[in-house]
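Continuing from the previous page...

OK, I double-checked the sequence for S41 family peptidase against my notes and this is the correct one:
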Amino acid sequence: MTHKAKFVLVGLAGVLAGAAMTLNLSAIADKDAATALPVEELRAFTDVFARIKSDYVEPVGDKKLIDSAINGMLSGLDPHSAYLDTEGFKDLQVGTQGEFGGLGIEVGMEDGFVKVVSPIEDTPAFKAGVKPGDLIVKLDDTPVKGMSLNDAVKRMRGKPGSTIRLTIARKGVDKPIVLTLTRAVIKIRSVKFKLLESGYGYVRVTQFQEHTGELLADALDKLYKENKAPLKGLILDLRNDPGGLLNGAVAVAAAFLKPDSLVVYTDGRTEDAKMRLTASPENYLRPMQSDFLKSLPEGVKQVPMVVLVNGGSASASEIVAGALQDQKRAVLMGTRTFGKGSVQTILPLGNGTAIKLTTARYFTPSGRSIQAKGIEPDIVVEDPSMPSEEDGMGIREADLQHHLANPNGGDAAPQDKPSEVIKAPPADRAPPDGKEKKPAPLEPGEVVSKKDFQVNQALNLLKGLQILQAR
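Thanks. Re-ran it with the corrected sequence; updated structure tokens here:
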């Protein structure tokens, strides 16, 4: 199967209202069909199956037992492999197109509870104040402990306009937080942009979806037209971007890199899992699609850039950040990224269900694996609305149970220290008790707050670079 025939996504764990993982919609081939089956282990499985059927306190259907066995087999591998029933598979496919129903939370499992990886911007969960790292312990009056991730996700889905009550445990908060959320049809435009001031543009990618590359090209074209001259600097904001389609990540990186520059490569046990993806149309276009990057404004590939990242930047966003950093194309600013460096392939089973299976690790152009480590920015700039890194707040790949090890050794943070650390003024920082400081609300129609400390630091850096170039 050629790469163009594949549907590849990169992102996080379970999804409540969206998809963010590495996807490859290919049929399961008859690879190594002659592989010997473990007879003794299968005998033990059938013995347990038979004993449950005969002795369990209540009758249990064959389908429920088999589905539960498949779920357990996959969830025991790593945090991102999973079984997708018919409904889950359909939701995943719809989610990659930028419209889906639910609350708007990227979730995983931790110690039997649903753990929030990131609320998706402009969704009910985001507006209600759900935070990364929150543990959802109850759904309405039903405890989450003991549920599978898929079961919890199903309970959180529902008819738009209906409500659900989430009971949340949050680090640093003594009492459970109870939030009532109204479900909605989630429509996400994955690219937002604004001319911050004359000569300086801002582009935010919230997720990597099917049309993200095209939306980015359109955003850059409009920025250049609004500025009526080549830009002097550009900020690419990937903060709290949980990932998405791999070809979307390659398209975003390709917009700023020289043609045929290496963006990412993957390595796994099968030949299909070994890919080398460059800034070339065949690696980001869908079949029969014209090249939307061909007519980018002149200067896009040379404009000075700052890429903003944080602990919510995961997978596909880490691929883009790593490529632009390794290729010396942009300065990375913010805080260390999430650290998801694995690739999941969606393998349909032929009956409307599928398995999401981790099939490869990915590497940045210089050969770095960010798995369980993340990417350290060139300049660390703290987010004043969040506790500092030293407080150990937030969730990262290394915190997830059964996470894959980094092939380069160790799961600690990268040893390379940033060249500079910029702290927010004391008055603007979150209190040192583990609680967040509420960020300044956006004005109606505003894309980014004028008081965003990290954005302002990025803008200052770009202006400084402009002065140095002029000299």
